[in-house]
Please model this.
Amino acid sequence: MKQTLFDKIWDKHVVAQVGNLSVLYIDKHLIHEVTSPQAFTGLEKRGIGVWDKTKIVATPDHNVPTLNQHLPINEPLSRQQVDKLKENCQKFDIELYGLLHPYQGIVHVIGPELGITQPGMTMVCGDSHTATHGAFGTIAFGIGTSQVEQVMATQCLLQAKPKRMRITINGKLKEGVLSKDIILYIISKLGTGGATGYFVEYAGDAIRSLSMEARMTICNMSIEMGAKGGLIAPDETTFEYVKGREFAPKGEDWDKALAYWKTLYSDADATFDFEVAYAATDIEPMITFGTNPGMGIKLSEKIPTASSTESPESFKKSLAYMGLAENQSLIDLPVNYVFVGSCTNSRIEDLRIFANYVKGKQKAPNITAWIVPGSKQVEKQAQEEGLDKILAAAGFALREPGCSACLAMNEDKIPAGEYCVSTSNRNFEGRQGPGARTLLVSPLTAAKVAVAGKVC
Model:
């Protein structure tokens, strides 16, 4: 029987079937300080331990400051959560990549860069953007706190099998169009609920042409259109990226793993529950204007009218929050904040794109910019390549790793009423701080705005 890539991985990990639910074995479990405390408490109350501590990767990311990480954390709640993760990892003998550890960073950045993320795996985390790891041909998805406890206790998860969707993009991308623009374009077409109930496979020569880091950006935002997750079939680009990394297979183990990984693709006649295709040439640099990632337009377009949407009242409410109007162009909109970072766009390629554009230019006087690497490894590489010096010469500073201004859960918050051009993944009301107004873009568009001081 012909199978999709998703079916091949899922079926290989089913331990048992309970009615319509599968008991799914989980290869890797990523944990951070936000969704793990209750799970650890649950284990203690039950008097049970962790099933396999070697399958857990732990690091703080959401609550950490991005300046002066060698000092105690100022915010009491943030400090408490980070300290609790350390305490729980010590109690259950789990290795922790804590603050100042050379492997510390955002969970969805350190997994791939350390070679922990590998094709054919099942991976979970108490974080919705776990879909990022699907770029390697993995089934990766976010779970709730009670499920975090379940995986810790059993290394398995009770799950209903999602339907399969394939999104194909063929053709050559226009100059200046990045993977962030691709996924924002897709979500603007399908809407925030367009992939609900599905696991998405991204395919087509435009996807194949992308680097691994660009593919991660696309899979990362699968959740923003309601999907359970997203994945891309592994190929030579994937194998080359994984090879030689810290926790990647070595020697004979590599040869064996590679042989298996090369079987991971959707068979030619495999059936998907839903398919959609887009032309790469139709995609342009994108920007969001509303309060969900589906409210996106090309930079060359104007904001739609409420009457052209499915929920006019909700649409008007969103525009009112954003201080924008129907039929308005965002070009020349004054912006005072720029954020480059998050699990979507904080990797070395993202920093290179930003630095390459601002090199020889100067930050606009009105701009406050937070340039935040996704991990200590990314920070180190940026320094070795001299990106920090390029940024400094242009008036920017490279901060320390963490989730930062992606969400209002640490010290990096956007003030109420201010616009922030952001490379993160969500633009919900208050996402970057109470009253903050978020415009999602690619790192290249963010760099242009940081220099111009306005949308351009």
